[in-house]
Every structure is written in structure tokens, then in C-alpha cells.
Amino acid sequence: MGKPLKQIKLGAFLMQTGHHIAAWRHPEAQADAGTNFAHYADLARRAEAAKFDAIFFADSVGVRSSHLPFLARTARADQLEPLTVLPALAALTERIGLIATASSTFNEPYNLARKFATLDLISGGRAGWNLVTSSSEAEAQNFNFEQHPAHNERYERAAEFHDVVVGLWESWGENALLRDKASGIFYDTEKLRVLNHKGKHFSVRGPLNVARSPQGRPVVVQAGASEAGRDLAGRTAEVIFVAHQTFDDARSFYSDIKDRVQRHGREADDVKIMPGIFPVVGRTLAEAEEKFEKLQSLIDPVVGVSLLSNMIGADLSGYPVDGPLPDLPATNGGKSRQQLLADLAHRDNLTIRELYLRISGARGHQQVVGTPSQIADQLQQWFEEGGADGFNIMSPWLPGGLDDFIEDVLPELRRRGLFRTEYEGRTLRENLGLKQPRGLL
Amino acid sequence: MGKPLKQIKLGAFLMQTGHHIAAWRHPEAQADAGTNFAHYADLARRAEAAKFDAIFFADSVGVRSSHLPFLARTARADQLEPLTVLPALAALTERIGLIATASSTFNEPYNLARKFATLDLISGGRAGWNLVTSSSEAEAQNFNFEQHPAHNERYERAAEFHDVVVGLWESWGENALLRDKASGIFYDTEKLRVLNHKGKHFSVRGPLNVARSPQGRPVVVQAGASEAGRDLAGRTAEVIFVAHQTFDDARSFYSDIKDRVQRHGREADDVKIMPGIFPVVGRTLAEAEEKFEKLQSLIDPVVGVSLLSNMIGADLSGYPVDGPLPDLPATNGGKSRQQLLADLAHRDNLTIRELYLRISGARGHQQVVGTPSQIADQLQQWFEEGGADGFNIMSPWLPGGLDDFIEDVLPELRRRGLFRTEYEGRTLRENLGLKQPRGLL
């Protein structure tokens, strides 16, 4: 009786005018959404009013395609830098978490540690860092690399990067700041910890020149599904954002990660697994399908084939669009994603066109087209049967797709006792049900 | 006869609880100001209501002193990262410029180009970048360096860094974004410029994945007073923030920079020179002096000697505090600052204690203690006689010191027709009277 002990956690994935590749062409879409701050302010307020745990910004540090016919037809490069947008949204919101993606391959840990600690301070404890290693050569070429650093090397660097950042966040003990005007003593320097890190990739002395942040440390989010990614996540992640095609995949990933977490001496509940969900909501199934087809019809074939080529790490423009997916060469990029797509094509016997139509919408994430009750059923199943602790809602277009989810699906989840009606806590950590780290000093 | 053609430009230098080293001990100071976002939001709104051109945030990427007795007695490390705070302030203001300091030595140009372009977009054209090369070993040690990179090397990197950033800001021509839903064409790729920079320090392909920003490009600010710093400023700076002790120094610097600017084919007015001013305002001179002495009396000698040692690049703790300044070894840090301080001590025959008291307040900047009319006289002289285009107001303590300036000095400047009563433009560039760069494409 009363509400269940555990409820679904929800993130709102805010990407320009929506997650669907042709969303910007939707009649109700704001085509300039990518660089329109008012658009994001409006979305953040809607998501907060709906009691989402967090808003989530993806990122890349480059224009991932140099194929001009593709580039000309997408809104891809018309975006804002997440760690600059989220502080602005922090000033306009009070309770919702703020998760920004930032690359461990193309940043310095001291800089990122300062920025996330600052975001945590100005938001009153709502910051999260989605650590990615970046997967494209186009990004590497903006940072002095001829070729992209190899997958294993990126993950090795990421692991050390993470430890340096967390170490810097522990520079100041919980009561290090005395600020005693009478004696003139500002800090208790007994509670100062100089990191003195010397590792393979980084030498970082410390301490951080930003005070201890309200959450002790910002929430660490990860998205890697490869072996190296899972290994790092098992040791360090507190939230995992992941793409699955089927419930079996989700359950197997969920159980693997929870095992790894426990093998690292953590509790299973110390990490929240939140797959991406691409929901298209209709009052009837037919209405939902019609909404989806409307978006699909806006995909230019040039965009579809290029998008697939880019995601799969191989140029498919020379192959017949109505023929099968050819065998793929191994790439240095996101290995797990290539495998997911090849498996999908093989399983459902898809042509290149069918595959690009399949992935252009949800782009590897679970696509759910249906009524509020059908969508709630699926979320409930994944949540209750060991596939997810929550979900990242990748709205097909914005704001309309998010509105549909908020107005139609959330009431259904609440009727079932599966989603909150009010925030439980003040910080992102509290709302997610994650432990507050105690200071080392 | 109407307002004069040119008026004074004003920046509000916002540093924790004020520029005076002991400001945090002031009875009216908010001791936690450094990490208190509400404090900065309040200051930004006050400065905007007063029609300041910009607020200005200094920065360092490390705790500059490892001398614990000093560290314990200052608020130094209790700060926020500027490029994370200014976006949040952008969301709460509408007209005031937002200038953040960021180091060319410890960042990558692609990252900074994105962040400043984003700040420019979300603020509607109010972003400024204060390019610094960073001057302390404590900072270098947070970024894999055993020793700080040499002065000339830092400036060589800074020059190339600047060119890459500005080049990236020119990735998209003025009308590159078509966003035509009907044809499906988002970009005019004819107006896309791929930088393809390959230089000594950087290889950066581009293009930037952020749209062209409202100002064409954010305003470039610099503060270097060394030969290398002046050379870079002459070619690239649009605003110069500088420290002077005397009007003669100010005039000589002003004329040197304007010459250099013209030698680089720019117009003298393409750069605004804004020395720092540390004003202590009283209704009478005696009241102003009393306010100043109250702050000076709060400086712990441990802090004074350490501060001076740190600024001058040599440990003075072993020398008699009431003896003269010893001859100084050459350092790799801020050469120009060391020279300024040695000249000051020599000119006025100061002991170490007298020197630290002298510089603890204004820290190398022009200190003006007096009535509103006396302070206005000095600003007017510097402005009208070739010493300055404007000033950065380094309030001794905050918010009180800024309030004094706004309530007492600004009305006096306005009576003289020397400062605006309303913003002239919408962007920082427009308010400063700087040209809007036209897109290359």
C-alpha cells in the first residue's frame, strides 16, 4: 500500500529540435532550436514542472561529417556547447538535475573538475558529468591528432581522467571553510588535501581552486557499452545511459553492470541504469504510427544513407540502397554501436534503406510508438523485470514530443505509482537516490 | 550642447568579496562571496542598472600559493570558474557585457571557441574573452608541466591560439543558415569555411560546430603589458585591461598601444584601453581615507608579505619586513608586474611592509581615495589627456564599494557628460563602440 519503494528515474534528453534526424523539418518545430536559448529555457522549465530527475545534453567536439550533401540537410552543427548552456539553465530552474557531456579525450581534468564543481555550486547541487571518450576522427582533427586515438587508449586515459577529477573534487574537506572574520582564518588547512597525482597520462598537483560542492561531488554519468566502457562504468559510473534494441539486451546489460558494480565493492543500487527511449505517443496506436510516419517521410535519402554510414563507421553511399548491408571492416570508433546495427540488420533482414529508416528515428535506442498505456506498459516491464532503473526520454521532436510524454504518459505512470509527484530532495543525487559521498577529510 | 562624442567605458571587476586582499574580513562583506552565486547575480544586476559596459571576471587555474599560513588567511581558492558563472549571469541580465578570463596556455582553442560563441549566442551578443597566458608555476603543475612554459613560448602559443579561435568563429558566413523546411536544406554549404589550420602549436581542422554568433565574434580582451604582450595586443586586442601607477605610465602605454594598433593596419579606436582603478569613495577625503585604513588594518602581516612575494616572484619572508626590497632574480612569470613593483618601491623608497600595504589594496592598479569629485577629476584627466578610453572598476569590497561608486561617482561623471545614461546598443561591441566584423563568406 502507498507508493512503491522504488520509482522510475527520468532524464529529458534535449537535443536541438528533437532526436529524430528530420525533426527540424516538422511543421511545429522551431528550426533554429539548436542555438535558441529561449527554446532550451522553455524545455528545462517544462521538464522541471513535470518532475524529471534531470535534463541531459549530448555533445561532440566537431562537425562529425565532412560530407557536404549530408551536412547541408541536417541541423547537426547548429548547436550550443553544453557546459555553457547548463549554467544558464541553472539560473532559471531550482530542482531539476543538469547533466552535461564532456570528453575525457579532448579536455584537461583540472579544467573539467572546476567547471562541474562550479555548476554544482551555482545550481545548489544539481550537476552531473556524462564522461565520454569521443568516437570520431572529425573530432580528433580539431585537437592536433592526425588520427583518432585508439579505443583502448581512450579508455585508459578516461579511467585516469576520472580519478584525477574525483580526486580534485576531494581537495577540501567538508568543514574546511571557516571564514572567521575575527581571527582572520578563512580555511582550516588541515582539511586541505593536495592531490599530487602522477600517472601515465596526467600529472596534476592540485588542490582545486573551487570549494567543495554541495553534492560532495557531481554525479558521474557514462554511456560506454563496449567491454572497456562497461569495465570503467562498473568501477566509477553512478548513472548509465545506454542504447538497447530489445528487452533481452537490456536485461543482460543491466545484470552484467550490476555484477561489475558489486565486484568493485559497490552496492548494486549505487548505479542507475537509464536506457534511452524514443517515444511517439498517440491517443490510438494508429495516431502514434501516423505521427511517426510523418517524421520518417521527412528524411532525405542523402541524409539517411550518410547517417547510417556515419553511425556504422563505413561509407555506404556506393551500395544499392535497396540491397543488404555489406560486411563491415573493423573500425576504431564506437565498436559497440557498429555491432548493434549489424545485429539489427541481420536479425530483421533489412536493406540499407530499411535500416536507415529504422535507426534514423531512435538512432539505436528503443523506439516505442503507441498509446500512453502501451508506452507505460513497456517502461514498467523494463523497470520491474530487471532491464532499467529509469529512462532517458529522447523526444522525437521538441517541444511537442516532450509535451506528449508529459501530458499523456506521465499521468499513466503516476496512476501506477511508478513516477513521483514531487521531488524527494534538493540535489540530483538525492532525487536519483544516490549516496552523498563523505569528505575524505 | 548635447553629449560629447566620446564617453568613458566602464567595466566592473567582480572578484569574490572585493579586490582588497582583506575584503572578506570587512564587517559588511559576505565572507562566502566567492562561491555564492546569488552574490554575483546581485552584483551583475546592480552593474547593469548602472549601465556599466561589462562585468569582468579574472581567473587562475590553480591555487597560486602553496604557503599554508598565507592560504589559511585569504579567500583566494574559494572561487567559481568564470566561463561557468557568466552564462548563468547571462540568463539574469539583458544588456551588460560578460567578459571571462581564459588561458591560452592551458586550454585547447576548439573548446574555447565553442564556449565563447555559445556565451555570445545565449547572451544575445554580450560575450568577451580575456585572453591570458597564465603566469604561475602552481598553475602549470595542474596541467602536466614540471615547470611553467617560458614567457616567449607562452606568447607564441597565445598568438597562434588567438588566430585559430578567431578562424573558427569565421566557420560560417553571415547567411549560412537557411533552415528551409520545404527543401530540406538547412545550411548553405557555400558559406561554410573549413579552417584547416596547421601551425607550430596547433592542428585544427574545423569547422566550428556552433553557429556564427551575434557579435560576429566575441570581443577579444587582453591584459599583457610586457613587450610580447603589447605586440600581441597591437595586432589582436579590442579591449586592453592594464595596471598603471601614474598618469605618465598610462599615457605612455596608451600612446604605444595605439601606435602598434595602427602599425597593424587597424584604426586607433579599434582598441579600448581600460586601466584598472581601485576607488575608495568618501563624502570627504577624510572619510575616504578612514574607509581605506579600515581595510588596510585587516591585513595580516603573514598575508601581506606572502602576497608581495607571490606577486613579485621571489620569497621575501626571510627579509626584514621593515627593511628595503632586495634585488630580485629574474623570473619566468609576469615580468611586467615584477618591474612595476620594483619601480614603485624604488621611486617611493618603500620598506617591504610599506610596499605590501601599498599594493595589497589596489595590487598594482591605480588607487584613488577621495571624494566623488576628486575621483571623477582623475578619471576625466586620464580619459581626456590620452591615458585611457575607460576603466575597470576594482571595488575594494563588494557590494558596498561598488555601490559607493555607482551612487556617488557615476552621477558626477554623468553631470560632466562623461558617462551614458542609457545603453547605446544591444551588444557589448555596440556599447563599446567597436566595429562588427563582417563574415568572410
UniProtKB/TrEMBL annotation, chains A, B:
Organism this protein belongs to: Advenella mimigardefordensis (strain DSM 17166 / LMG 22922 / DPN7)
SUPFAM superfamilies, A to Z: Bacterial luciferase-like (SSF51679)
Protein name per Swiss-Prot or TrEMBL: FMN-dependent oxidoreductase, nitrilotriacetate monooxygenase family
Domain Luciferase-like: 22-389
Family affiliation: Belongs to the NtaA/SnaA/DszA monooxygenase family.
Pfam families: Bac_luciferase
Record GO terms (molecular function): monooxygenase activity; oxidoreductase activity, acting on paired donors, with incorporation or reduction of molecular oxygen
Lineage: Bacteria, Pseudomonadati, Pseudomonadota, Betaproteobacteria, Burkholderiales
Keyword match NADP: no
Sorted UniProt keywords: Flavoprotein, FMN, Monooxygenase, Oxidoreductase
Residues that coordinate or bind FMN: D59, T101, H151, Y155, S226
